[in-house]
Amino acid sequence: MDKNKTISGFSKLSKRKKIKWIVENFFKDPEHVMKEIISHWYKDEEKQQILDEISENTITNYSLPYGVAPNFLINGRPYALPLVTEESSVVAAASSAAKFWLDRGGFHCEVLGTTKLGHVHFFWPGTISQLQHHEEALIARLLEVTAPLCARMEKRGGGIRSVRLRDMSMEMDDYYQLFVEFETCDSMGANFINTILEAMADELKAYFADQAQLPTEQQRPDVLMSILSNHTPDCLCRATVSCPVGDLTACADVAPEIFAERFARAVRAAQVDPFRATTHNKGIFNGIDAVLVATANDFRAVEAAGHSHAARDGQYRSLSDCRIVDGQFEFWLEVPLALGTVGGLTALHPMAKRSLEMLGKPSARELMCIVAAAGLAQNFAALRSLVTTGIQQGHMKMHLGNILNAVGASSGEKDQATEHFSEHKVSYQDVKEFVETLRN
Amino acid sequence: MDKNKTISGFSKLSKRKKIKWIVENFFKDPEHVMKEIISHWYKDEEKQQILDEISENTITNYSLPYGVAPNFLINGRPYALPLVTEESSVVAAASSAAKFWLDRGGFHCEVLGTTKLGHVHFFWPGTISQLQHHEEALIARLLEVTAPLCARMEKRGGGIRSVRLRDMSMEMDDYYQLFVEFETCDSMGANFINTILEAMADELKAYFADQAQLPTEQQRPDVLMSILSNHTPDCLCRATVSCPVGDLTACADVAPEIFAERFARAVRAAQVDPFRATTHNKGIFNGIDAVLVATANDFRAVEAAGHSHAARDGQYRSLSDCRIVDGQFEFWLEVPLALGTVGGLTALHPMAKRSLEMLGKPSARELMCIVAAAGLAQNFAALRSLVTTGIQQGHMKMHLGNILNAVGASSGEKDQATEHFSEHKVSYQDVKEFVETLRN
Q1: Is the residue at B63 inside a domain?
Q2: Smallest Cα–Cα separation from A54: which of B83, B398, B283?
Q3: For residue A355, which of A294, A389, B8, B373 sits 20 to 30 Å off, Cα-Cα?
Q4: B78 and B96 share one domain
Q5: Backbone angles phi, psi at A337, to 5 degrees
Q6: Given strand B77-84, what is the order of strands in its sheet?
Q7: Last residue of a domain, one of B210, B229, B248
């Protein structure tokens, strides 16, 4: 093993010294790379420091393209959505779906619940019925001891909604949980929830330590861990689009009735086939995550919640569904969304702050609606392409610019290529050969 | 509805005109916001153009902090991992787990398969046994017609691995699939796979059109869609760490045997409880996605594949597992990873290119190993905190900097706060009050 490539005390080095160690040990042209890494810094030192301190061992910034999809009509209000994604055609697809539904009533979104969850996992040597003897007294003490920690959240209308015991002893001997429901208003609430749970864990131990009448081992519950859950089936939003089947025009050369039928079958395929469901839901998250990144929300949390929700009945299925009843086409998405519009990085990241402003400084509930609409729009656009022209035609047209950049095409070459490939199939090789032919 | 907030032809506007329309209609201080949006552009126009053309309707760049976690020993080779994440403590956790395992043999990673999948979904009015009469001849023609499209991929060692019919008629009348396996070498392969599938769909129609002996309706299969699948259970990587239980030291004040036992129980909890599994896997993806973003891979695809894999047996479970056998602690992760190190944006995004260089220009298989190790490291660090000190102690210490920035603390105030909170519990309110007290 090359000992130069490991290090002690890296985190304590200055930013420049960190970069120096990295470029000298992992790059062939250290000076050049160091300059390039530094070239990505903000000129404004204060702004750069904020970025640096968001994470650890930071050496520079990673830029993602910040796009905008206008014309989203959500619950009667027009929005322009900030979308941060590295995937070509996501923003174009969102914009096109938004425009399509703008003339057909837009997106109707409803928050079905905002309950967040957390658990204290503990082991207690006794049966569930023995444990339940203590339930009422224990929970009273848990609520009492955490009351001061909840005071500010309660002023905002949130706090602890319920605490109960959950019997997990069929899975592991003596395994129980405190199952806690929270309302965290406009904050994602992770720190609030984890702080409360850790305080509850301490009090759980204190409670049983006080029960001198119990056998010694029952006076010492073994707390394994205290942590929020990202599985939040009751922090849920539904987004719906709907119109008479006859209004499903402008979908290529397909008659509205046939389009509706093909679309419904494509959704059905994603309901019954996990191979298809995974890709289908991936497309939904293309839209969702792009808004989440733009607003500094945690996309891993939302992905985990969404996909585990998709598997809730024992088979992994589509998060969206579709029906055609009495000539009316209806397409909807139900997705758990534990979001925040205050706290975290929402006010700290310079562009996240602007994204929220662009969205009219939404509450967490409003942001849930916006994000769900973005997911449904993306799903609609993807299925529309898939069941009509196929995905490649639009996608490769969008990707053409990337290929032209990758082969180093000049502006003149780009114009000629764009004209040529408006009528020919785009592939990396064909674009490369076309540009090479131009050059010879 | 405010008509000024919707627009036709937005995508055709110049970048400056796009910004102008957005700031004038969605912001209170248009001029100031316009300047700020532009301030995020690269000075280097060429670099900016590359970013702009990755996506659509782009108006600026969104910066994420680019951190580095050194000391990852993976299959005997030391790496420094580029990690792009907005979540505090992810990079610190990865670094700390990497250092811990550096002295204990590092990460052992094995690619279990690289098979990628795609499907042509079609409807054909007949039974599966009627359809199977055509299987051999049909597949021969599908392979023949797609051969030229596969030529370059085959030179690199990839191509189509198999084509078969899949009976889906129990789910919908007449529903069948062409189920196609691919090897796409170092590319993620989405465009390759979709192009092949669309060509197969055309040929499927052509094949049946030629079967004059069949009833007319059987001469016209109805192709619904042709698309890759993100559910790739055979594109799989396993990462493992292992050491004698007695070597599990440096985990707070807990004896190695007790730590190992608590750790194993925490993994078991994530195996049996979907509420815990979701959060557990979310932590794994904190590590995985940070490398994916840094290398311009598609994290939505990997998230969807991983979470649907986690639900494969009918219950959503942990992707990692743990055992203690004969005094040996073993902890491993199995996760589907369909990645690319060529094509896509890997050579186009300026920092993604550097990330791959930092990793020694890995093949896709090597990157699978690196990414799996990042996921396992993150999971190890999270569980270590959870079953010892609790998550909040480390997390809030990392988050302290963000809170100080949010309340606008000066450099002197930050020093005093950091000293104070090294011995006190961090909460937003307490930090805010501490800084206010300093000021009065």
Answers
A1: no
A2: B398
A3: B8
A4: yes
A5: -140, 100
A6: A77-84, A58-74, B58-74, B77-84
A7: B229
B119–A275 C-beta distance less than 8 A: yes
Per-residue buried b or exposed e for A52-76, using 16+ beta carbons within 10 Å of the residue's own CB: bbbbbbbbbbbbbbbbbbbbbbbee
Residues B120 and B96 in one domain: no
A59: which 2 tokens? 């050496």
Specify whether A24 is located in the same domain as A162: no
A347 in the same domain as A251: yes
Q: Which residue has the tokens 């758990």?
A: A336
Mutate to test the interface with B, among A278, A295, A393 (most CBs of B within 10 A): A278
* Assigned domain for A121 exists: yes
Predicted pLDDT at B250: 65
Distances in Å between the alpha carbon of B343 and those of A172, B66, B82, B349, B388?
Answer: 47, 22, 19, 11, 43
Six-digit token string for B333: 């992760």
Adjacency order of strands within the sheet including A328-336 = A108-111, A236-244, A328-336, A320-325
Number of H helices, E strands in chain B: 15, 10
pLDDT band at A125, cuts 50/70/90?
very high
How much is the average pLDDT of B395-401? 73
Residues of A in contact with B391 (CB under 8 A): 194, 225-227
More confident call, B425 vs B163 = B163
Cα of A55 to nearest chain B Cα, Å? 5
Average the pLDDT over each of A401-405, B70-74, B271-275 and give the range with the smallest value.
A401-405
The CA–CA distances, whole Å, from A199 to A143, A212, A224, A259, B240 equal: 10, 22, 14, 56, 34
CATH number for A144: 3.30.70.420
Rounded-to-integer distance, Cα B144 and Cα B138, Å: 10
Is A29 within a domain?
A: yes
What residue type is B17 in one-letter code? K
- Residue A223: burial class (beta carbons within 10 Å; 0-12, 13-18, 19+): buried
CB atoms within 10 A of CB A7: 19
CA A420 to chain centre: 38
Q: Are residues A361 and A408 in the same domain?
A: no
Residues of chain B in contact with residue A80, where contact means CB-CB under 8 angstroms, are: 5, 22, 25-26
B64 occurs within a structural domain:
no
B305 shares its domain with B386: yes
Q: Are residues A80 and A205 in the same domain?
A: no
d(Cα B21, Cα B24) in Å, to the nearest integer? 5
In this predicted structure, the answer to whether residue B406 has a pLDDT above a threshold of 70 is yes
Tell me the pLDDT band of B302, cut-offs 50, 70 and 90: very high
**CA separation for the pair B109, B126 (Å, rounded):** 46
**In this predicted model, what pLDDT tens digit does every residue of B94-149 receive, in sequence order?**
999 999 999 999 999 999 999 999 999 999 999 999 999 999 999 999 999 999 99
Whether the pLDDT of residue B301 is over 80: the answer is yes
Can you tell me which residue has the tokens 């942001």? A367
pTM, rounded to two decimals: 0.94
Q: In what side-by-side order are the strands of the sheet with B108-111?
A: B108-111, B236-244, B328-336, B320-325
Q: Which of A36, A56, A177 sits opposite B67 (nearest CB)?
A: A56
Q: How many angstroms separate the CA atoms of A424 and A432, rounded?
A: 14
Neighbours of B111 (CB within 10 A): 17
Q: Which of A39, A194, A285 sits opposite B304 (nearest CB)?
A: A285
Number of domains in chain B: 4
CB atoms within 10 A of CB A361: 12
Residue A307 · residue B307 · CB < 8 Å: yes
Query: Quick one: average pLDDT of A291-301?
Result: 97
Residue with tokens 């030629």: B210
Full residue range of the structural domain in which residue A137 is found: 116-229
Q: Specify the CATH number for the domain of residue B327.
A: 3.90.770.10
The reply to whether B323 and B376 lie within a common domain is: yes
Option in A6, A7, A275 nearest B231 (CB): A275
